[in-house]
Amino acid sequence: MNVNSIVVLKLVLLICWPWLVYSKGEQGRLLVNMTLVRNASALGAYCLDGSLPAYHLHRGFGAGANNWLLQFEGGGWCNDIKSCLDRSKTHRGSTRYMNKLEVFAGILSNNASFNPDFYNWNRVKIRYCDGASFAGDAKFFNGTSLLYFKGQRIWQAILLDLLPKGLGHAKKALLSGCSAGGLATFLHCDNFTSYLPKNASVKCLSDAGFFLDERDIALNHTMRSFYEDLVSLQGVEPNLNQNCTSTLYYPHLCFFPQYVLPYINTPFFILNSAYDVYQFHHILVPPSSDPRRHWDHCRFNVTACNAYQLNILQGFRKNMLAALRVFYQDSRRDGMYINSCFTHCQSETQDTWFAVDSPRIHNKTIAQTVGDWYYSRNVSKEIDCAYPCDTTCHNMI
Ligand SMILES: *[C@@H]1O[C@H](CO)[C@@H](O)[C@H](O)[C@H]1NC(C)=O
Ligand SMILES: *[C@@H]1O[C@H](CO)[C@@H](O)[C@H](O)[C@H]1NC(C)=O
Ligand SMILES: *[C@@H]1O[C@H](CO)[C@@H](O)[C@H](O)[C@H]1NC(C)=O
Ligand SMILES: *[C@@H]1O[C@H](CO)[C@@H](O)[C@H](O)[C@H]1NC(C)=O
Ligand SMILES: *[C@@H]1O[C@H](CO)[C@@H](O)[C@H](O)[C@H]1NC(C)=O
Ligand SMILES: *[C@@H]1O[C@H](CO)[C@@H](O)[C@H](O)[C@H]1NC(C)=O
Ligand SMILES: *[C@@H]1O[C@H](CO)[C@@H](O)[C@H](O)[C@H]1NC(C)=O
Ligand SMILES: *[C@@H]1O[C@H](CO)[C@@H](O)[C@H](O)[C@H]1NC(C)=O
Ligand SMILES: *[C@@H]1O[C@H](CO)[C@@H](O)[C@H](O)[C@H]1NC(C)=O
Ligand SMILES: *[C@@H]1O[C@H](CO)[C@@H](O)[C@H](O)[C@H]1NC(C)=O
Ligand SMILES: *[C@@H]1O[C@H](CO)[C@@H](O)[C@H](O)[C@H]1NC(C)=O
Predict the structure, then answer these.
(1) For a substitution probing ligand 5, which of 171, 172, 199 has the most ligand atoms within 8 Å of its CB?
(2) 206 alpha-carbon distance from chain centroid
(3) DSSP 197
(4) How do residues 316-352 score in pLDDT, each as one tens digit?
(5) Which residue of 265, 266, 268 sits with most ligand 8 atoms within 8 Å of its CB, as the best mutation to test the pocket?
(6) How does the average pLDDT of the chain come out, rounded?
(7) H or E stretch including 382?
(8) Which residues of 88-98 are buried (b: 16+ CB within 10 A; e: fewer)?
(9) pLDDT tens digits for 20-46?
(10) Sheet containing 268-273: order of strands
(11) CA of 316 to the centre of ligand 7 (A)
């Protein structure tokens, strides 16, 4: 199937809305320049359209000068030639069309009062232009159209570029990302650790990246077949965790976080809403599953959902918690924050990350909980009560 681009556009607008409001009102916002990775061509690491990959780096200072936060940008996927060709002509598939200045807010902010635990670290935003969560390695050429599926090499090229800039002797490091970038942290977490000093403290955080292997309301495996097409088109399978792919009967399933999670050795934090709006709209109720459009009102306005629809949403939450049960029980080195808001990505926007009215569980903000986990200040595994009990949400719908 194709990602329904109108729905994606709507979602992007919804996601950006609070951010636009915030950044318009915020005078002292931090804008960071783009760095193109010129050496990437030596590795054949190109965006979909053949342009060079890029990141934005804001240097750390003081006590954080040797600490590094790398954040994967998100933005969906493309799983067939047409959707990838379309994407290659936009900022999601080419650095040519990207804004050269990025706003650094939330976990990327350099101000202690907005980002208490990571503000003085070196902070890097890795731009997303491959359409496969930085994990593909293939190429398409049929005589007229050319597409590079080189996400894995982009990840490698950016790491190699950053290592001599100080990442190579980091004392503390955190690999994070949101949405498709949150999924990339599951895929690349242990690989990141392998490049850093053995005595460094290295951890990973996924924001809104815990995409569930769930059937939609028509009982179709919509997301599973979407990922199957993506893994096959972009040559992802050899780059998936080998301990996972050698165990599962369908190796491409290792693109789903829940299957690779048991094989990740680095301390991990999962930040996700149990009613993640992207998953609601693309996994649970994709347009194909609702031809009679019974869900139109509920999809964009949760207070318009009827009892039957709410029941299905509660079932989705239950299944997410079930998929996380072992992770929840297993170890003290991991953390989680599963709240009950109709949202998608909460670490990059100031109002959800750390503000007077930001979301809370047991009165703890996301920034406090992630900080407590990273610095081992406290056990950090928070699960919210079910909708509609949470009154601190910044709901998108
Ligand atoms: C960004 O980089 C360009 C080219 O190096 C430079 O001209 C511009 O002043 C920079 N902008 C900021 C805000 O640093
Ligand atoms: C951090 O933000 C506060 C509140 O907006 C502001 O007063 C302060 O000057 C900022 N600090 C820095 C270092 O930018
Ligand atoms: C190559 O692929 C593109 C996109 O699918 C298609 O429009 C074009 O006709 C193809 N060219 C040839 C020579 O097959
Ligand atoms: C770029 O690649 C060349 C050749 O592989 C290497 O010698 C050089 O150190 C690289 N430069 C950077 C900044 O990574
Ligand atoms: C790791 O070891 C190196 C070399 O012994 C040392 O310079 C560095 O400070 C150590 N880092 C940490 C975080 O202890
Ligand atoms: C990390 O990934 C690169 C390719 O991107 C690979 O060459 C390297 O062997 C990997 N390292 C580990 C420890 O898996
Ligand atoms: C979804 O499942 C129904 C049967 O439950 C089937 O008729 C339909 O073709 C499927 N749709 C898609 C898009 O796979
Ligand atoms: C697979 O598991 C073994 C044993 O736990 C471990 O040594 C190895 O690094 C793992 N490989 C990957 C790719 O995670
Ligand atoms: C959402 O649905 C409720 C209940 O149907 C309705 O009262 C409200 O006006 C709707 N809000 C929007 C923004 O459409
Ligand atoms: C919640 O935490 C804030 C500080 O973050 C504190 O001022 C407030 O009293 C707490 N509320 C409750 C009910 O504990
Ligand atoms: C640790 O977390 C518990 C439960 O959230 C809380 O009651 C306690 O005050 C926290 N301790 C510290 C040192 O923050």
Answers:
(1) 199
(2) 6
(3) -
(4) 999 999 999 999 998 789 999 999 999 999 999 999 9
(5) 265
(6) 93
(7) strand 381-383
(8) beeebbbbeeb
(9) 434 433 457 999 999 999 999 999 999
(10) 101-104, 30-36, 54-58, 122-126, 67-72, 172-178, 201-207, 268-273, 335-339, 381-383
(11) 20
> 303: which residues sit within 8 A by CB, 6+ positions away?
none
What is the structure's pLDDT at 396? 86
Catalytic-residue membership of 113: no
Work out which ligand 3 atom sits closest to the CA atom of 144: 11
Query: Is 113:120 a contact under the CB 8 Å cutoff?
Result: no
Its pTM surpasses 0.90: yes
Report whether residue 242 contacts ligand 8, using a CB cutoff of 6 Å. yes
Considering the domain 3-383 in this protein, what is its CATH number? 3.40.50.1820
- The response to whether residue 331 sits with its C-beta less than 6 Å from ligand 8 reads no
pLDDT at 238 > cutoff 60: yes
Segment 275-322, tens digit of pLDDT = 999 999 999 999 999 999 999 999 999 999 999 999 999 999 999 999
